[in-house]
Amino acid sequence: MTALQRKGTPMIRRFLSSFLVLALLATAAGPKKLPKPGFNLFSVEQDIQMGQEYAKQVEQQFKVVTNKELTDYINRIGQRLVQRGGLEGYPFFFKVVHQDSINAFALPGGPMYVHTGLITAVDSEGELAGVLAHELSHVVLRHGTNQASKQNLIQLPAMLAGMMAGGGMVGQLAQLGIGLGSNSVLMKFSRGAESDADLLGLHTMSKAGYDPLDMARMFEKLDAAAGGGNSKVQEFFSSHPNPGNRVKAMEQEVQYLPKRSIDPPSGDLQRMKKAVQSLGPAPKQGQGGGGQAQGGPPPTADRMPDIRPASRMKQFRGGGVSFDYPENWQVANGQNSATIAPPEGVVQGQGGSAVGFGIMVGAAQPKSGQVDLRRDTEQLLKAFAQGNTGMKLEAQPSELTVGGSRALATRLSSPSPYPNERETDVVITIDRGNAVYYMVFIAPQSQWSRLEPMYQSVTKSVRFQ
Ligand code: ZN
């Protein structure tokens, strides 16, 4: 079922003008000025909230290493860069994930994940710190949300303005096609962002008592590995493209850095490499394996995901109603409605995002002020039919009671966003006196019988306040 589109045209001109200003400021020569965060529609708090929500996804998909020695080591390096480098202001944390690829990635707002493959590949702690300093710079310069802001000038302001504090951000972003996939606008950095992260990273290294040239050496090594066809660095370069002459630009910049003393090496690295070896082979695909970089590609409509709702339920509360939903599904709040769906059940269909699996809820007020359930249900179904061509009534409305109120259940079918599928849409309309509360339960027809029992228990759990 197609989600309603929002209009926001008056915003365009204003944002375009701030764009031009940014473009003019972007060129500079000589010892470069330290970069600053650019244009952004997100607040810093929203960066942080988003990162924390994505971190939960990451930790379901990757095997987080619990070895205390390794985790402490990465945190020592990370915190040293943050504190001595003057990057405070975000709740940074550093975790190791068991992955062979030579990579590390940071989410907006601070969570950072270092692959065991990176620890294996470096020849000094400074090289490892160099990659972390580069990643930290992306966080502090807010590159992910800067890029997302620039690409979603029209839809983002309305979405962010309507966002309720305390959760569901990832689900709403998914509706705009923003996710953690390897091609995500949040994680695939522009060449300009790369240069800026290199520059701030070098300064950070130097302030933290590392040799900034170690960072240049690491990128040189990564470049050489990529040039030699080493597939272990593919993930890193798909997120962090070489801005051109990267190593040379770094070496040049190092000459302009204030001369600072370099701390003697801690001598811990060899022990850490042994600790990585003791973990055994890294998981490949599937459970805890990640497989795809950073949480897999964003959902597209060309394949149907295998949706398995968690049996544990969470409570939705809002708009004077509460009900239970599977805890691995996410809430996206609209203006007078909400979508509760598994992240991979919201896909980019023709003309916007479409819910392939999920529940849409909302309320509508009849013009007369008093609900006539049959009449208003008919009105609502007409409105749905307008946004969903090919929608068919499968069964006449039947009466039931939901949350102590009179209700009608109507079974419809419509084209699914997945290929060669139609979907079942069961619309429940509930008489709340002066408003009709509605819930639409959506699943492809071939999957309906698997989802139906859960949808029934959701309906049974509805309570009005
Ligand atoms: Zn980068």
Concise summary:
With 465 residues, this protein is of the alpha+beta class. It is built from 15 helices and 15 strands. The strands form four sheets. Strands 6-7-10-14-13-12-11 form a seven-stranded antiparallel β-sheet, sandwiched between helices. Strands 1-3-2 form a three-stranded mixed β-sheet, sandwiched between helices.
Describe this structure in words.
- The chain has 465 residues and is α+β, with helices and mostly antiparallel strands.
- The chain has helices at 10-25, 44-61, 68-84, 116-121, 125-140, 143-151, 155-161, 169-175, 191-207, 212-227, 234-239, 246-256, 269-277, 373-387, 448-460, and strands at 93-97, 104-106, 111-115, 313-318, 321-326, 330-333, 337-341, 346-349, 352-355, 358-364, 392-402, 405-415, 422-431, 436-444, 463-464.
- Helix 3 crosses helix 5 (125-140), helix 9 runs antiparallel to helix 10 and helix 10 runs antiparallel to helix 12 (246-256).
- Mean pLDDT is 85; it is low at 3-28 and 285-299.
- It binds zinc ion.
- The site of zinc ion has 6 residues, from helix 5 and helix 9.
Could you name the key traits of this structure?
binds zinc ion, seven-stranded antiparallel sheet, elongated, disordered N terminus, single chain, about 475 residues, three-stranded mixed sheet, alpha+beta, 15 helices
